[in-house]
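Researcher: Next entry in the queue.
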Amino acid sequence: MVKLLGMLIIVLSGTLAGFNKARQFERRPQQIRELILVMQRLETEISYGFTPLPEALNKMGSQMQEPLKSFFISAANDMNSPQGLTAQESIQQALALHWKRTSMKATEREVLHQLSFTLGTSDRQDQIKHIALAAQQLKHEEVAAREELEKYGRLSKNLGLLVGVLIVILIF
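Model: Structure for this entry, 172 residues:
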């Protein structure tokens, strides 16, 4: 009886690990899409709304879901803090604090990292161009993420179950 319970726990653990990995594959394109929409809204805020960057980032963050919500609100708060961090410093600090909670990869992080160098340091038109470029790069990453989801989403679920069964066979 105890062996059977142990076997079930091991198989269940492997299956849950596979489903967890598959969920990461599913969340990545969704989060990239959300990031693209934020870039487009940020571009609009800067070009037509003449909204200051901390206020625009705070507004964008309040309209998003976690974990990106925390990222944008944290960056906005750092710019408005008594230390008065620059846009670059606050975005990079927010990346360091909140990025590990996302399902996105280093390529999307690098897009935001590169964007941080121009936000708040150049004129409006230059910022708009860089935001549009970042959105375009993110669109390419979204396509790649969807392809990965198709390739590896179901595979991860099945592999988790099979690894659990393999461990049970090897142990018992």
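Model: The chain is about 85% helix and 0% strand.
Researcher: Noted, moving on.
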